[in-house]
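Exercise: predict the fold of this chain.
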Amino acid sequence: KDRPESAEYDRFAYLVKLFADHDYDEAKIREYCPFLVQDVLFNSLLVQAGRDLAEIARLLDEDPAPFEEGAKKTARAINEKLWDEDHGVYLDLDLVAGRRIRVLFSPNLTPLYAGVPDEDRARRMVEVLETASFGLTDEDIVPVPSDDRLGFGFSPVQYWRGPVWININWFLMHGLRRYGYEEQADRLRQTIVRLCRDEGFFEYFDPSTGMGHGSDLFSWTAALLIDVLAENG
């Protein structure tokens, strides 16, 4: 019950065969593949990675400009192509259909981590986090689920259909701090510590009960707890 349904695995297998049939040639794959998505999370992490590499370059007396320019270019593209004014978040872009994918899930909010939105857009994104969809201010539930609690495909235990993932909450915690939302960031920090303390280092957690699911000795859960605990020395 925790894993995707058979129909989803069929789609994964179809894509693997499609890639193999085209010799894993990216140009051919882009030409024939029915699943081409410009992803909010991937591109947000690309922005922050560029900025981090620029900082490393400065420490090594190397030229940070190529990394800074790459990060700026990607951030600009995210703002121009993925921001959705109606929803107040960034949405993935379906390149085949030529339209944004109007489904809310927590990675839509990770541009906060990379400092992509301006202050007004950041405020609107925090407002989305505080709705019943993600429950950031609800003391009776575990924020932030991977999928919209009110969405048609939500499941509290099925892989990426709703469970709480520590890594996404970690990104959002740092993003909220970046924009000065300390109270909200502290809520996520407390969530990360409490889930690991009470349940263990599980792969993901039920957003209603906090119960752990998936692998029970998951390395990034443990690693990010260490990072969170190290925040205050």
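Check your answer against the key: Strands lie at 37-38, 83-84, 89-90, 93-94, 99-100, 204-205, 212-213.
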